[in-house]
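FW: tagging you since you asked about this chain on Friday. Here's the raw sequence from the shared folder, copied in full. Didn't touch anything.
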Amino acid sequence: MSHPEVVRAATRDDVEAICGFGERVIPSHYTPLIGEPAAHAQVADWWSGERIAAAVAEGFLVVAERDGRLIGVGQRGRYAGRDVIYKLYLAPEARGRGLGRRLIDALIAQLPGDADRIDVEHFAANERAGAFYEREGFVVERVEPSPSGDPGRAVVWRSRRLP
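HL: got it, structure written out here
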């Protein structure tokens, strides 16, 4: 019997599973959007054990799991004095169940009480993410062209005001 999904703060014990999740989910998600080399570079650059362990130590990572299996990851951080969501990924079979919103809510719950906004960034080619963030109240602030010149790899920055 399947149990409901649990969203919780990540712990040191989750680092290996989070890295494995990135290796499984990220290449297949990004290859059609930005190409295979860039998709694998995303894993190498942002899903290494060292980076994930540091984010867990900072208290910046949340996970979703069902039946003890990792099915989603959310990570926040700080950039230019602002709180930013850098990762929000679900396993394909876990999409469309409200877990993305629950991961966002868990990340927001970690913010200081006086936080008045949270930002998110995504590749322009990731139109599905753009539509999701728009539904969740994130408004486009700017688009940074990619150094590669590939318009799909431009970075879209969005912001959402918090109550």
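FW: The chain has five helices and seven strands.
HL: agreed, and The chain has a mean pLDDT of 94.
FW: great, closing this out.
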